[in-house]
Amino acid sequence: MTEGRRCQVHLLDDRKLELLVQPKLLAKELLDLVASHFNLKEKEYFGIAFTDETGHLNWLQLDRRVLEHDFPKKSGPVVLYFCVRFYIESISYLKDNATIELFFLNAKSCIYKELIDVDSEVVFELASYILQEAKGDFSSNEVVRTDLKKLPALPTQALKEHPSLAYCEDRVIEHYKKLNGQTRGQAIVNYMSIVESLPTYGVHYYAVKDKQGIPWWLGLSYKGIFQYDYHDKVKPRKIFQWRQLENLYFREKKFSVEVHDPRRASVTRRTFGHSGIAVHTWYACPALIKSIWAMAISQHQFYLDRKQSKVSPFPGPGRDSAETRPFMEP
């Protein structure tokens, strides 16, 4: 009889679930189990991922068994992360308070780990909302300084940009004093409204190269596929919205998208060409390319499901199953 494998699932509230995953357990069943710890009803926005050997998050496919995924070959338990996989324009679209709180925890973690580009002055303002949410109204400078050392509120990069920790704390205190009277819920909503306006929020970035070997970032989100300069994750050089996509596929080290180009279509009609399709291709190691393709497929399906159901995103987490995929690998 085949034994299971030990897994450690890191949750958004800093808890860790230690599990013995059995060989037949589906990723969907694992997600259900984790979601039950938060009494989470809107599971469709979340996923479970592991960090692959390239340093990127690789998401479990819900219709596959957990242990069928290509985990890094390391000793000890498999380390998994429960976090937001599918972002939306605003938490106002969410129906349940538990979901909103998890989006808040997810955003707070991304800011603190410097996964989102944020100006240091905005960081200080966000830190004040974290204090208001966790501690309530301002009491004294000494208490705030102590709390800031315990809370995940000030990323290392923000501290490096200023002469001292005390200066950063003073800036946070200035913002914090203005929040007196705000409820915990208001602090969360105001925090999220700022984060949702940041250009790099909600984008999954992947390091790729073009045919000439020039490095780029490929950003995938509910909006589409964006291509960024390697030293600038804020302003995309190319934008491919999901509604423009005709096909996407991968083979070994190559990920390609076929995009409907209206300008090319008008030219080809005049010159009796076949169609207005432009093909864009990027390169990386095979494992990362497959991960990019899987994320693109699921994000496109998320877009289609939201488009179909308008406000209600979709009926259930079936976006990973083969029958829902509009584009398949060749």
TrEMBL record:
Taxonomy, superkingdom: Eukaryota
SMART domains: B41 (SM00295), FERM_C (SM01196)
GO terms, molecular function: cytoskeletal protein binding
Domain called FERM: residue spans: 5-307
Keywords: Cell junction, Coiled coil, Cytoplasm, Cytoskeleton, Phosphoprotein, Tight junction
GO cellular component terms given for this protein: adherens junction; bicellular tight junction; cytoskeleton
Stretches with biased composition (Basic and acidic residues): 320-330
Keyword Cell cycle: no
Pfam annotation, one family: FERM_N
Compartments, as annotated in UniProt: Cell junction, Adherens junction; Cell junction, Tight junction; Cytoplasm, Cytoskeleton
Keyword hit for Cytoplasm: yes
SUPFAM superfamilies from the UniProt entry: PH domain-like, Second domain of FERM, Ubiquitin-like
GO BP, sorted A to Z: establishment of epithelial cell polarity
Region (Disordered): 309-330
PANTHER family tied to this protein: FERM DOMAIN-CONTAINING PROTEIN 4, FERM DOMAIN-CONTAINING PROTEIN 4A
Protein name from the UniProt record: FERM domain-containing protein 4A isoform b-like
Taxonomic source organism: Sus scrofa (Pig)
Lineage: Eukaryota, Metazoa, Chordata, Craniata, Vertebrata
